[in-house]
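Question (not urgent): is this output format expected?
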Amino acid sequence: IQGAIYEVSNKYGKGLKENIYQKALAEEFTRRGIRFEQQKRINIYSMDTGKILGTYVPDLLIDDKIILEIKATDFPSQQDIRQQQSYLKASQYEVAYLVNFSTPRLLIKRSIYTNDRKPFIARLIRDS
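Got this back:
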């Protein structure tokens, strides 16, 4: 995944819109045989009840396991990082990447929040 991100960054550089980087990454993932979906809706659950509170639509979902969010801004935003961590905390996914193609140096921020730390996951498993 990171190799594909670096490849796209090297090919296209800085200054493009997020959707262009998303399409370029989709091409690169396809070329490398990496399974992914674009704009797939994922459920966000209540920490207390396990009920669905809403949905989140990440830029890419890789191998139905990893959320990838693409940014193209001059400076990394702490809000973007906190938002990414919040989505991990309230979804069934454990790993996410935040990639900013327009920072002075390519930013790849990986976040991990394991399911064993999420109380609603046990409810989901029990109720299914």
